[in-house]
Amino acid sequence: MKAVRFHEFGGAEVLKYEDVPDPKVRKDQVLVKVKACALNHLDIWIRKGLPEVKVPHVNGSDVAGDIVEVGEYITDLKPGQRVLLAPMTFCNQCEACMRGQQNFCRQFTVLGYLNDGGNCELIAVPRVSVVPIPSELTYDEAASVPLVFLTAWHMLVTRAQIRAGQIVLVLGAGSGVGSAAIQVAKLMGCKVITTAGDEAKMDQGRELGADYTINHYRQKISDEVKKITAKAGVDVVFEHVGKATWDESVKALKPGGTLVTCGNTTGFDVGLDLRFLFSRQLNLLGSYMGTMGELLEVLKFVFNGTLKPVVDKTFPLREARAAHERLEKREQFGKVVLNP
Ligand SMILES: [Zn+2]
């Protein structure tokens, strides 16, 4: 089969479209023909080089496609079914997994991070990772859902425990996770302030349901938040940007407010004035992906049309380099998708 791999870490030029052996499906696995695989910022970090990642490596965490073969132990799925894959892998037998907290499993990892992912034509995965999708959902839409909607759900609903009437600041409306978070916060009855880098993306953020928008290049986020909230600040900040926005995110919180973060696309080395943390009684929460239970929960809202996948642009798999460059230049609104 064809796959996009890299044999050394580096810029987008290290991505090679090449022949690799077909995967062999184990008795407890499902073989899926990949129709769409969405990109995440993680793909860029992995390509540039993260510890423990071995080369040659195949990226790809968000997969949708058709079942082509099922192992003999699997009786409830059949070839031809349209499916998406859970964006993570885990042991499915330890205490954390049995508790339903797969993201605390010692073997938990994002699909395509410490194992090969879906930037290829065929992928073999355990039964537990496979979720049939309704016919209305295109493969590109289905691939745009798993990682970002699971992450946004875990951050807002499980970790920050957002409630109707709260004000949530979602950074980066144009990012995959930002476009998901706006919708999840609105679904839960919150008011949403979001940020974007240009007018077009601010409009798109409003179309997804955001009540207020801030241009994060031209305006100071915390000042604008103060204006919008009559100096009160927000209940929750949805952080995934890191260094570039951290100070503004902390300043935007109201006393007793909660900052929840899942990443740091601009850098991880941030400062914190402890006096500000304790005197204003702030909550800082880390969040990593989510559980299978949460994935199935959020997918119900996607499958009934309440939450909408945001597909930015599709590229043929062989043009993975151009797709990476689009994401790296932050030109996208929503998910950049590869089609094998
Ligand atoms: Zn486990």
Offer a concise description of the structure.
Keywords: NADP. This protein is an alpha/beta fold and about 350 residues long.
Explain how this protein is built.
- The protein folds into two domains: 2-145 and 309-339, Quinone Oxidoreductase, Chain A, domain 1, CATH 3.90.180; 149-286, Quinone Oxidoreductase, Chain A, domain 1, CATH 3.90.180.
- The chain has eleven helices and 17 strands.
- The chain has helices spanning 41-48, 95-98, 139-143, 146-159, 176-187, 199-207, 221-228, 246-252, 274-279, 292-303, 320-328; strands at residues 2-5, 16-19, 29-38, 62-70, 82-85, 88-89, 109-110, 122-126, 130-132, 167-170, 191-196, 212-215, 234-239, 253-261, 283-286, 311-316, 335-339.
- The strands form four sheets. Strands 3, 4, 5, 8, 9, 16 and 17 form a seven-stranded mixed β-sheet that branches.
- The radius of gyration is 20 Å and the shape is globular.
- It binds zinc ion.
- The site of zinc ion has 7 residues, from α2.
- Zinc ion binds next to α2.
CATH architecture annotation name of the largest domain: Alpha-Beta Complex
Could you estimate the helical fraction of the residues in percent? Answer: 25-40%
- How many separate domains make up the residues? 2
Strand content: 25-35%
What's the rounded overall pLDDT mean?
A: 97
Give the cofactors and ligands: zinc ion
The beta-strand count equals: 17
Number of helices: 11
Uncertain parts: none
CATH topology descriptor of the largest domain: Quinone Oxidoreductase, Chain A, domain 1
Largest sheet: 7 strands, mixed
By secondary-structure content and strand pairing, the structural class works out as: alpha/beta
Report the CATH superfamily of the largest domain: Medium-chain alcohol dehydrogenases, catalytic domain
CATH class of the largest domain: Alpha Beta
| Secondary-structure element pattern, one letter each | EEEHEEEHEEEHHEHEHEHEHEHEHEHE
The rough form would be described as globular
Radius of gyration from the alpha-carbon trace, in angstroms: 20 Å
Please give the alpha-carbon distance between the first and last residues.
10 Å
Protein name: Zinc-binding dehydrogenase
GO molecular function: oxidoreductase activity
Pfam families: ADH_N, ADH_zinc_N
Domain Enoyl reductase (ER): 10-338
